[in-house]
Design goal:
The protein is of the alpha+beta class and 398 residues long. The protein is built from twelve helices and 16 strands. The protein has three domains: 96 residues, Rossmann fold (3-Layer(aba) Sandwich); 62 residues, 2-Layer Sandwich (Dna Ligase, domain 1); 201 residues, D-amino Acid Aminotransferase, Chain A, domain 1 (2-Layer Sandwich).
Amino acid sequence: MAEGRSILCISSYFKGNRFLRRAKQQGARVFLLTLEGLRHSPWDREHLDDLFVMPDLSNLAEVIKGVAYLMRTQRIDCIVALDDYDVELGAALREHFRLPGVGLSTIRHFRDKLAMRLRARELGLAVPEFTSLFHLPDVERFLATVPPPWLMKPRHEASSIGIKKMHQADEVRARLAELGDEASYHLLERFVPSELYHVDSLVVDGQVVFAEVGAYHRPLLDVWSGGGVFATQTLSRESAEAVTLRELNARLLPAFGLQRGCSHTEFLRGRDDGKFYFLETSYRVGGACISDMTEAATGLNLWEEWATIELAEPGTYRLPRQRQEFGGAVVSLAREERPDTSTFQDPEIFYRLDQKYHIGLVVRSPRRERVEELLNDYMARIARDHQAVLPPAEKATL
């Protein structure tokens, strides 16, 4: 139990109530630091000892001053960033206040797409060919030897945000000129026609103790750039893909330096060569209802278990028993502020997303075929009756 321990959670988005609740139930004192604009979001205040807000979390010096002021009267034992965009801030605060957990060097493997690719390649994992954009002759060699299309990716954005697909070398050169001094914050990578998978994990004392594998219906880049409805579902746990991906994931996370916590990791499987490629990883719970899908299939809530792991003494965490069913999630931007999902009445529905201008449903079943049947039906109905069509620049991040 975490009696007497204090945890400071940081989030620049509204998420993580299940984490806050479990941490409080474990006996910890729970504090939350968030943005002024999120002060009135429906945080689970019953399980918070206090909530603090700042106008901006991007100014590290000011955040350090704010946390230092809090620590004059409140002892803080650990710091947890609930959102992907806050993990570097969390690492910087741990280092400044000499608290345990992932530091700045290690966190690069979970936030910087270039750092994680270099590390994965060192480990012997396949990665699509890539180059940094530091040295122009290296970029020209890449364009001359790696066939198009290519993807130019921001190194520190999440998921598919900001990625541009290019087919001509002159497109790359023009984009580099446009970026100017910002070019070094990007990388260039070969586009691999592929299927996309995700592995959602819990790590304890440097070992992966839980890993659930899912398959996206369409690659996220296709959904965000070309429109459509997002969907994913649990893979058969005995399938060759799931076994291989769990093995790759178990090699990757400890070598990346994750000692305890939660991770969402993505892999590609090339359509031409059948090879699995590492795409990216993170130190967070997966978005777009993936954690709800995991709970639907297994009964295990990643937010809650992450809180328990963070507060557990070394060697004391025990993974709860799980069910072995299948889950699926479908999510889309919606035309309506509060979409009416009452026409979706199947008994397999486990969760309905409650978020403005979004529609989302999570289902569970003992049969994977039934999950796929429901997702196909729901994707078609949502596209017909609810989906918002927005230009890419206006699309929300799930």
